[in-house]
Amino acid sequence: MASHHIEIHYCTQCRWLLRAAWMAQELLTTFEQEITTLTLKPGAGGIFEVHVDSKLIWSRTQQGRFPDIKELKQMVRDSIAPDKNLGHSERSA
């Protein structure tokens, strides 16, 4: 069984807890066999980052926006389960 850790670092000043919690729920549902822990990490200063096994895969500061859940799932999949089919969240041909 795979053991991967996801961390979502979000800004409490910006009130992004609900967004982070929703994304966490989506990832835990999609990758229930692959993820062993998912941590929501409160922060400040407009931070919204997603780390997979300590590797940064998304930064709102760098990207200038939040990820769509579809693209976030694809990025996580590419990091932890490249052969996993995401069904309707799969990339378009």
UniProtKB/TrEMBL annotation:
Keywords: Redox-active center. InterPro entries: Selenoprotein_Rdx-typ, Thioredoxin-like_sf. It holds the Pfam family Rdx. The keyword Lyase does not apply. Signal peptide: none annotated. PANTHER family: SELENOPROTEIN DOMAIN PROTEIN (AFU_ORTHOLOGUE AFUA_1G05220) (PTHR36417:SF2). This is Rdx family protein. The lineage of its organism: Bacteria, Pseudomonadati, Planctomycetota, Planctomycetia, Pirellulales.
